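seq/struct pair 1
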Amino acid sequence: MGRPVSSDDPPPKDTFPVLIFHQQHEPRFGKLRLSQITPDLIDDFKDDRLAKGTGPATVNRDLAVLRRMLRIAERKRFIARTPFTEVELLEERSIRRRPHIVTYDEEERILAVADPHIKTLAVVILESGLRSNREALALKWEDMVVGETIRVRESKTSAGIRNVPLSGRCKAALLAWQHRVALSFHLTSSPTCGIPNAT
């Protein structure tokens, strides 16, 4: 028989899928029984989202929420089989913007005109391979053993917590920055003078 899709059901703990459900899926599927959600309806949903200018990656994230709901429904035997066995996700790789690999010449020209804090940040990232936001911008002087390593204490994953060897170029940039603002390492510009605030 199937069961109606209802927003009164207990929502998942993760609020992002709940938001996707209310914004995207409930208007389209909310009045249908689970057994009435067919591969053709899901394909129509994909086509409508793409026609409105939504990117394939976003559409796939939307579909992932619906796919999980229907897998749970299948496991709990509210439906005999999830329609996603006949639904293909959209190709994302072909439309992703390819990164531009900066040449050595471009690197030199960028660093020559960059503000001091941007130049230091760029050299640290180039020489160490640190992620800019979660790793490089989170560094403090106590994370440095100047001349030896950088201790990464914050990262996107637990595997990112590590010691990174310092190159001569990176060491020179850090020492120059330390001389410029001895109290702070944070490479975020001050609204008044372009120098990091002391912390």
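seq/struct pair 2
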Amino acid sequence: MSDLLQLPPYPLIGLVFFFNILVALIGALILRLIAKEAFWSAFFPVLALSLLGFVTGITMSSSREAAVGAVLPAVLTLLGGLLVYLTGSAGVPAQAPVSVMVVCFVFSFFFGAGTGSRLRVGFENAQSDPTEQRDRELAQQDNRHAVEVRKLKQYLEFLELKRDLANQNNLDLSGYKSIYETEPPAK
């Protein structure tokens, strides 16, 4: 499983959708067998709750802030409210479909939470890895070098342009100082 989390984001997103569709298919099949629900009318609500569970779980656990204290009560309130409303309004026949949807939501929520925490830990480990830090510092040094080379080339182009203008128009530009030729202020 840890190798799957090292994938670039697009295959990981595909894996997530595959997982949630699989959960929704299993939930819809269970509903078809238990509650005699039509397959497609059961599949889409289960898929929606499954995706909501996964997104909530991965968002909560990949955050560096303390999101558990805010997200978990909201999730439990959502599930409790959904159970009470659907069971109370539809009675006993709604208990099986609601239970299956809640199980799919919770299963996806915990899978999302596990995936998010693994992604966060992997990111933090990569950030503290000495090889990664060295590569990042070398890339920054290469960028600074490229900027300095470009500044030098622009300065040389400026000097050439200044010389050419002075020669073409018989001007004395020795007293002209541009931003390229002024000394930076001392820090």
